[in-house]
Design brief:
By secondary structure, the chain is of the alpha+beta class. It contains 8 helices and 11 strands. It folds into 2 domains: 206 residues, Multidrug-efflux Transporter 1 Regulator Bmrr, Chain A (Alpha-Beta Barrel); 54 residues, no CATH class.
Amino acid sequence: MQKLDLKKRWKRLYQSKPGELAEVNVPPLTCLMVDGEGDPNRSEAFQQAIEALYSLSYTLKFSLKKSPMPVDYGVMPLEGLWWADDPRAFHQADKSTWKWTAMIVQPEFISKTQVDKAFDEVRKRKNPAALDRVRFETLEEGLSVQVLYTGPFSEEGPTIQRMHDFIRAKGRELHGKHHEIYLSDPRRTAPEKLKTILRQPMRLGGRCRKAKGQIPSRDLPLMASVDRLAALVRESVLFHANVFNQLDGVVRVAVVLLHHAVGVEVGAVKADGRAHDSGPLFGR
């Protein structure tokens, strides 16, 4: 039987150093998810979500152990995405208005058919209250900063602020929802010893996008010519391996300067000629 250590496979995502901020590039991950809102310490819906997620996750695990091509793996830890319509709710500790997504990451080889069979089995055996609220979906976060925090959930604030300051110091901005990965069982661990990975997705700051979100049409032909010129030069350089490194550096600098001349940085333009949308900001 093949045995997989998913935490080891995604080591950088699940084994951060205590207190050390680290940039990670999170690949797309398939998850079982349940959405809800309200104080997680008092919300019955949150506890029901956890029950449904673990019931499905363990059913999938044991069904794969008994399959014609058996695979064994450890069920991944509980994770949560957190946000609020009014970010001040976090600073005011108004948990009644918090919104959340509870989730558990699944191995990438799990199929929708296998998940559907697990749903049927769990429904026949236990039928937890939140089962019909569970969805199977891919989470995409990309470039993020994360840190391993040790201590009670109620005192995460200063560490989260460090993360936000780190992101802004890098010339980037918050993008997406605050993410927590619970490595300890709060039922069996003292609050001061709880280990939680805190993660915040980020992206290039607003300086890398036009304020109005649209590249002036007069600049598009020039930008296209710049990109084409760069491509042609690189093709030529490939025939001269001895000088490739030096010339490619010169080309990259030239492209950056020409892009700056029309007011747009490299990497800030989509294929359709539009700058990236600003999107929502989130701060806990």
